[in-house]
Amino acid sequence: VEKMAMQIHADDALRAFADRILNGEIRAGARAMRWVDDGAPQAFDLLRLLYPHTGRAHVVGITGNPGSGKSTLTDQIIRRHRERGRTVGVIAVDPSSPFSGGAILGDRIRMVDHATDDGVFIRSLATRGHLGGLSRSAHDVIGILDAMGFDEIIIETVGVGQDEIEVVRVADTSVVVLVPGMGDDIQALKAGILEIADIFTVNKADREGADLTVRDIRALQMLSEDRTGVEVPILKTVARTGQGVDELLTAVSAHKNQTQSEERLQERKRRREAHILETLVRDRLVDAMHSALGDQEAKNALFDRLAARETDPYTQADLLVSQLLNADG
Ligand SMILES: Nc1nc2c(ncn2[C@@H]2O[C@H](COP(=O)(O)OP(=O)(O)OP(=O)(O)O)[C@@H](O)[C@H]2O)c(=O)[nH]1
Ligand SMILES: [Mg+2]
Q: Which has the least CB within 10 A, 2, 13, 67, 113?
């Protein structure tokens, strides 16, 4: 009984905490995001409470190579939203590459302009250490920003690596940022990038070769057949001066309206929910597997047998899965 009373108490406390987030309290939101980051067990209970209040904000993904100007562009976009009185939540996914250490610092410095503005919330998300994948953490953090009532949500992520590309799935509109003079890089652009782009922008258009890059992308677009009927705009921006940013926002709005008026939006939502559900189930199964294997000593014994080729992972995986599936049934 005492345990139950404590549980009810905890539920009340959590509900009160969720209410603070729904009221847009910055400190509560920040704390919830830390829970997600740390993989705290209460995080799921909280997210469960918040979920019905999410899915309202329009999420724009900004992805591109390191140094292509994503943060500078994001900064310009924030400024414009603020001029219209829209509140903005930003998630900057730190590039895992050690080379971009300076650039990460750059993010902080440039975005400091908005640091004192309550209508802007900027949060960075480390790429490492996210159980169940970065995209799910990003989804959870977006959910918190959404529950807090931010009108616009931007997620900045480096478009290299599978993890980062997966992140784009959580966005409603994906902007892929390229720069002039990429030459062979354009050819090497992952098919994945081409597929996820709803809008291309050739940033640093103050540099030579922007038009050539536009043409290269267009040529590449024509080669990929599955884009039937959907025109993916290719714009040019100079994030440093803000040139072309209004046009970019117009394209984002157009995409938003386009997707909302079609069943494509529903399809996009379906894919996103499926992805999140899959990662959650995978996490839980892996956790259950570890419990089923027992303590570290027992696990090591199995891993040693595998290493010694006394058994194989295929057989063991089948055994474990059938064991887990039968556990409750
Ligand atoms: N010439 C020129 N430079 C730009 C433009 N936009 C951004 N830059 C510069 O490019 C550099 C990188 O810009 P960031 O906005 O930090 O690029 P990023 O894509 O966020 O970089 P990461 O977060 O490290 O991936 C900075 O020195 C910017 O001032 C532009 O339109 N023209
Ligand atoms: Mg950046």
A: 2
